[in-house]
């Protein structure tokens, strides 16, 4: 069967989660695989197959016939200005064996044991950020807490000096204006500044190595043997810095918003903070920080839900839709902080499963109960329809989250 084409799908121009969820419900029941013209996911407008149901998304994310590097599917890579090319040599954009080689170099830093060791520092950072809000009657949770917490945690891990952290949050925001040619060109000055900063950081760690991940990667590059090329080194730091906080900020922001809109849930966390163990999984499912997977390319033809996907096609898994699939989750549109089992796909699946999942969970489990405990009367400082979402098709997060205490 040929997939139907839908015209009105553009999650980047977000008018509210509710509307998008209605579209997903319709897709899952009527047309579980569609073609859509997507803007902002890659340079130019690109047609892609979108997969909406949980079972199909979960299978596709693990399917070896879907690859990340276009030439591996016989497709030309999208045109990207030369300046960006080094950054494309990152694990999320590559297939094995390069993907596996790059992932192996850093995965020891993200094991649950190592992450547990970082929790003490994350807790202290959370407390300090909340202390700074003492006496205030209103604030923007994103700028004053949800962004600085993960920026601090990933910076400590990588070894980014304190004085540079504020700036790189802005630079990494530049990547997230989307990948349309226009967005790339608008972001050019910030991206150039970021690349120059990466060079300086690498030189600094080469000259004075410390006990941090960038120093370890610089040493791996110096060892040669194709362990890590110089472009791959920059690309690795860039993806860790950016993936390390741009998603976690959304877990905290979307998570708190969901709890304020479901006050029983907020009260349950306040009266029994240990509920956050299952609660954080449910918030990841209910308000997916990542809307859709990154782009994949069909190396061979495949059939999904009866629809033929020809070789060379672009494929995207709708993570936020899979997470609300009533075939997989009972009362999928309800927030149930005790939900178990809860096999959401918010961190993806298969070979590209999120490297930082343990880190993100650790931060979410600290942040959400901390915020609620500190402010027993927390309320939304605006009406839900006035909330501004970031104009990025792949991630789902608020520009600002005004709160009143
Ligand atoms: C709530 C927070 C987070 C969410 C929802 C999330 C989600 C995801 C998803 C869905 C993928 C797979 C994308 C795909 O297959 O197309 C992914 C990959 C990845 N994530 Fe995360 N992420 C989060 C936090 C983090 C953190 C804290 C880091 C830390 C550095 C991180 C690093 C990565 C990396 C490096 C990959 C690529 C892995 C690979 O290609 O093998 N993420 N993430």
List its salient traits.
single chain, Cytochrome p450, binds protoporphyrin IX containing FE, alpha+beta, 6-stranded mixed beta sheet, 405 residues, 47% helix, 15 helices
CA-atom Rg in angstroms: 21 Å
Main sheet attributes: strand count, strand direction, barrel closure: 6 strands, mixed
pLDDT below 50 for ≥5 consecutive residues: which ranges?
A: none
CATH architecture: Orthogonal Bundle
User: Strand portion, in percent?
Assistant: 5-15%
SSE order, one letter for each helix or strand: EHEEHEHHEHHHHHHHHHEEEEHHEE
Helix proportion of residues, in percent? 40-55%
Strand arrangement in the largest pleated sheet: 1-2-3-9-6-4
Number of domains: 1
Number of helices: 15
Number of β-strand runs: 11
- Annotated CATH homologous superfamily: Cytochrome P450
Distance between the termini: 54 Å
Instruction: Estimate the global geometry from the Cα principal axes.
Output: globular
What is the CATH fold-level name?
A: Cytochrome p450
**The top level CATH class name:** Mainly Alpha
Structural class: alpha+beta
Write structural notes for this entry.
The chain has one domain: Orthogonal Bundle (Cytochrome p450). The chain is globular. The strands form 3 sheets. It has a 6-stranded mixed beta sheet. A 3-stranded antiparallel beta sheet has the order 5-11-10. A two-stranded antiparallel sheet has the order 7-8. The chain has 405 residues and is of the alpha+beta class. 47% of the residues lie in helices and 9% in strands. It binds protoporphyrin IX containing FE (HEM). Protoporphyrin IX containing FE (HEM) binds next to helix 10, helix 11 and helix 15.
């Amino acid at each position: 069967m040929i997939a139907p084409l839908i015209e009105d799908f553009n999650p980047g121009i977000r008018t509210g989660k509710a509307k998008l969820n209605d579209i997903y419900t319709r897709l899952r029941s009527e047309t579980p695989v569609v073609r859509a013209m997507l803007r902002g996911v890659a340079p130019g407008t690109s047609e892609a197959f979108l997969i909406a149901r949980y079972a199909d998304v979960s299978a596709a994310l693990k399917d070896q016939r879907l690859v990340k590097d276009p030439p591996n599917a016989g497709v030309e890579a999208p045109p990207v200005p030369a300046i960006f090319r080094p950054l494309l040599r990152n694990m999320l954009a590559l297939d094995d064996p390069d993907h596996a080689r790059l992932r192996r170099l850093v995965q020891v830093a993200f094991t649950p044991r190592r992450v547990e060791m970082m929790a003490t520092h994350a807790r202290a950072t959370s407390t300090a950020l909340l202390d700074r809000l003492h006496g205030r009657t209103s604030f923007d949770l994103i700028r004053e807490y949800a962004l600085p917490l993960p920026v601090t945690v990933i910076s400590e891990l990588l070894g980014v000096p304190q004085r540079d952290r504020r700036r790189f949050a802005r630079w990494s925001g530049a990547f997230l204006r989307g990948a349309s040619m226009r967005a790339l060109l608008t972001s050019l000055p910030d991206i150039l500044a970021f690349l120059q900063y990466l060079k300086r950081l690498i030189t600094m760690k080469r000259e004075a190595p410390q006990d941090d991940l960038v120093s370890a990667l610089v040493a791996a590059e110096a060892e040669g043997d194709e362990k890590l090329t110089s472009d791959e080194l920059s690309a690795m730091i860039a993806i860790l810095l950016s993936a390390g906080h741009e998603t976690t900020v959304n877990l905290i922001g979307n998570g708190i918003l969901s709890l304020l809109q479901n006050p029983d849930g907020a009260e349950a966390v306040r009266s029994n903070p240990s509920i956050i163990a299952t609660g954080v999984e449910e918030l990841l499912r209910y308000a997916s920080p990542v809307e859709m997977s990154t782009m994949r390319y069909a190396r061979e033809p495949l059939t999904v839900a009866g629809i033929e996907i020809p070789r060379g096609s672009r494929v995207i898994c709708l993570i936020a839709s899979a997470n609300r699939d009533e075939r997989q989750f009972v009362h999928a549109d309800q927030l149930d902080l005790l939900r178990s089992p809860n096999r959401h796909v918010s961190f993806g699946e298969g070979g590209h499963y999120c490297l930082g999942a343990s880190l993100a969970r650790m931060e979410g489990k600290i942040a959400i109960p901390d915020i609620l405990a500190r402010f027993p009367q927390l309320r939304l400082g605006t009406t839900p329809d006035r909330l501004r979402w970031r104009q990025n098709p792949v991630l789902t997060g608020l520009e600002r989250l005004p709160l009143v205490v």
